From TrEMBL, chains A, B:
PROSITE patterns, per the entry: ABM (PS51725)
Keyword terms of this UniProt record: Monooxygenase, Oxidoreductase
Organism, as annotated: Sphingopyxis alaskensis (strain DSM 13593 / LMG 18877 / RB2256) (Sphingomonas alaskensis)
InterPro entries per UniProt: ABM_dom (IPR007138), AI-2_Isomerase_LsrG (IPR050744), Dimeric_a/b-barrel (IPR011008)
Gene3D superfamilies registered for this protein in UniProt: 3.30.70.100
Domain ABM residues, every copy: 4-92
Lineage of the species this protein comes from: Bacteria, Pseudomonadati, Pseudomonadota, Alphaproteobacteria, Sphingomonadales
Top-level taxonomic group: Bacteria
Xref: PANTHER family: ABM DOMAIN-CONTAINING PROTEIN, QUINOL MONOOXYGENASE YGIN-RELATED
Protein name: Antibiotic biosynthesis monooxygenase
Gene Ontology MF terms in the entry: monooxygenase activity
Length: 96, 96
């Protein structure tokens, strides 16, 4: 079993930071409550205004797929989209 | 209490990957066993040969300082150093 790490960089439109953080908190709670294959899912602010990074860790590829297919990711992701200034940048990593 | 996230990028010399990963596994075990203020500490391989990223999360700044001052970080860090191809690149993040 090889863990999968993801670092997602999200750029939020000026003035939408609070709305973004609020919806993301709902998403993180849903991930923690419903995804047995996820071991870490947390939003961080970077030093650049409006730029956030999400650190994520999954037990395996199936757990990543389950995350992306989940109702909470689809419904809350749809609410996050209008806050963003562009497409998320996703870096995928492999547990060592 | 504001969580602190760290993404550390480490470049390992060719041929030293296995030694590096072995020492890092000892370090991660020591962090998990001894640092109550750390909630995540995991090594990942990136897509670039010899380039690793560590995802770290601490409860607060004091927990980061306790990590850096710990005997396990100092002693095992000294063993990791000779495997590296340059200084680690550290990105510090703030929990949102």
């Amino acid at each position: 079993m090889t863990a999968i790490g993801i670092i997602a960089t999200l750029r939020v439109q000026p003035g939408k930071e609070e709305a973004f953080e609020g919806v993301f908190a709902e998403l993180a709670a849903a991930v923690n409550a419903n995804e047995a294959g996820n071991s870490f899912y947390k939003l961080f602010r970077t030093e650049a205004a409006g730029v956030y990074k999400v650190m994520e860790c999954y037990d395996n590829e199936a757990a990543v797929e389950a995350h992306r297919a989940s109702e909470h990711f689809r419904s809350l992701g749809a609410k996050l989209g209008p806050c963003l200034a562009g497409a998320p940048e996703i870096e995928k990593l492999t547990g060592a």
